[in-house]
Amino acid sequence: MQTRNLIDGRWTVADDGSTLPVLDPADDSLIAEVPSCGRDEAVRAVAAAARAFALFQAMTAVERVSLLKAISSLMAERKNALAELLTREQGKPLVESLGEVDYARSYLDGAAFELERQSEETMLDRALTGKTVLVRPTPLGVAALITPWNFPYAMLTKKIGPAFAMGCPVVVKPSEETPLTALAFAELCVEAGVPPGVLNVVTGEPIGIGSAFFESPDVRIVSFTGSTATGRKLVEASSRQLPRLALELGGHAPFIVLEDADLESAVSGLMISKFRNGGQTCVSPNRIMVHRSLHDGFVARLSERMSALVPGRGLDPQTTLGPMINDGGIRKVQDHVADAVARGARLVLGGELIEVPGLARRFHAPTILLDATPDMACFQEETFGPVCPIMAFDDVEDAITIANGLPYGLASYVWSSRTAQALHVAERLHTGIVGINDPAPVTSWTPFGGRKQSGWGIEGGAAALDEYAPPKTYSMVGLDPEAV
Ligand code: ADP
Fold this sequence. Notes:
- The chain has 16 helices and 24 strands.
- It is an alpha/beta fold.
- The chain folds into two domains: 5-249 and 454-475, Aldehyde Dehydrogenase, Chain A, domain 1, CATH 3.40.605; 253-436, Aldehyde Dehydrogenase, Chain A, domain 2 (3-Layer(aba) Sandwich).
- Helix 2 (61-77) packs antiparallel against helix 4, helix 3 runs antiparallel to helix 7 and helix 4 (94-117) packs parallel to helix 6 (154-166).
- The relative contact order is 0.14.
- It binds adenosine-5'-diphosphate.
- Adenosine-5'-diphosphate binds next to helix 8 and helix 9.
């Protein structure tokens, strides 16, 4: 297992030798120790990336496509080992980790595909202005990537795919909770032939490492996935050097089941989107609104399905619900349930911690809260846990108003058997993506970015590449357009 950092092509420890423990969230056992780095190591990583920029730019697009494909196929080869490591440090069931490795690979494959597809666009504009205009995507420079713990491979490749495709060297700061997956990925990148300095990974203290990113004039884009509160701090920190910011922040997805929805499909869809990673997902449905005519049937079926979830260690094959990532995570779930009950919600399933023999007290029972109202904490901010607060509605206008009533706008879901009706509702939801009868709308091939306080910028699809390499315009006078 790789436990050291990668800086300038060399595997290194912290300058003072200090380390951070990485614990298995299921039982608190020590998996490994990683370097506890800070500002100084990150400054060196940024300098290495800045030096690598010229070399990386000199690589042809064909070479960069091959590099992305080589990384992706090594991930496929090592799929089982990568997935096991993810489950150990993050807790999710192994089957989900295996799925995440494939999902993560799709961002490398997708970026390679886009790069192959993207031709340099030449606009011969002589008739209009008498000039010859050439527009080319041009890499910004060093990209600093700050990634979260809930999908540590996928959130990394979502950024690295387009960065590498467009020739931007990167410095990665993975979450303190899940550094080992990032280091395993880095090891594989070195083997695939990523040149020294093009990928650097620094683990440790977020504020120190972050300060190195925001002080350096060489860092031209900071791409972050995490909470809105941290995103706001990064915006403040960016005010001196003004790097481009790409922010994928918190969500609080509404899940609206219309009168004409297929009940079985809606319940199955909710199970998939809600219980992926135990609800610790930024696109997790948290505000479930069901037409009153379907409400009781929906709750009965959902309750049956949720009762069948099996909590446990992610490596056990029967496990379908892993632990919450840490004590703060479990406390938040408990607080939200207590707040909802205090404000009048009816607890009809779960509501308490589950004791799993031999494991930490970090498992929360799948929970259903009925009569949820917008003033409850679980309707105000994301719970990040296996809790389904449900509200019945009579008029879909009320559901839309509640859905749009928060400063978040990441994902939403609409269930209906009539396309026109579903689209009509979906068009009015202020979110970057809407799943219409689709519990998994986010893919590497399609653009995804939040509205309002859920973020800036796009990940996935062709637009993701523009974040790292915006168009540069060459306006030429007196040149022969045929010679371009
Ligand atoms: P969560 O609360 O879910 O862990 P955060 O938004 O705090 O989400 O963390 C997401 C990522 O941001 C992690 O890699 C974390 O270390 C990093 N991070 C948190 N605070 C800062 C900061 N001030 N500067 C740079 N990175 C930070």
